[in-house]
Amino acid sequence: AQSVAQPEDQVNVAEGNPLTVKCTYSVSGNPYLFWYVQYPNRGLQFLLKYITGDNLVKGSYGFEAEFNKSQTSFHLKKPSALVSDSALYFCAVRDPKADKLIFGTGTRLQVFP
Amino acid sequence: SAVISQKPSRDICQRGTSLTIQCQVDSQVTMMFWYRQQPGQSLTLIATANQGSEATYESGFVIDKFPISRPNLTFSTLTVSNMSPEDSSIYLCSSRDRNTGELFFGEGSRLTVL
Question: What is the pLDDT of residue A67?
Answer without folding.
Answer: 95
